[in-house]
Amino acid sequence: DIMQDPHVAADGFTYEAEALQAWFDGGHDTSPMTNLRLNHLNLIPNLALRSAIRDWLDNSSGS
Question: For the U-box domain, which residue ranges apply (predicted)?
Answer without folding.
Answer: 1-63
